[in-house]
Amino acid sequence: MTQDVLLTLGREALLLMVLASLPPIGSSLLVGFLASLFQATTQLQESTLSVVPKLCAAVLSLIFAGPWIAAQLTRFTHQLLLLIAEVAA
Questions:
Q1: Cβ atoms within 10 Å of 88's Cβ, excluding its own
Q2: CA distance 37 to 72
């Protein structure tokens, strides 16, 4: 296995990590912004008004994006196993 292959694998792993974490982080960011805007408008400073909606948004985004994330992780794992088989042969 050459250095170029290892660098490409590392790059793909980091990119996959970012793409897989984007749906829950993005939805939490959007809901957190809207909750903060609501809190600033109404002057309610309760911390659960911010945490609970962000948690629900992250879970919902994982439910909806879960099959896509699983497919991407499966594809990457399949590529890794094929490379391991080539090295062992």
A1: 6
A2: 35
* Distance from C-alpha of 23 to C-alpha of 68, rounded to nearest angstrom: 10
Phi-psi region of 2 (alpha: psi -120 to 50; beta: other; left: phi over 0): beta
Contact between residue 50 and residue 35 where contact means Cβ atoms under 8 Å apart = yes
pLDDT tens per residue, range 8-42: 889 999 999 999 999 999 999 999 999 989 988 98
Of residues 27, 34, 30, 31, the one with CA closest to residue 66: 27
**46 Cβ partners below 8 Å, 6+ apart?**
39
- What separation in angstroms does the CA of 78 have from each of 6, 33, 81, 82, 84? 16, 38, 5, 6, 10
Domain boundaries, the chain: 3-88
What global pTM score does this model have? 0.79
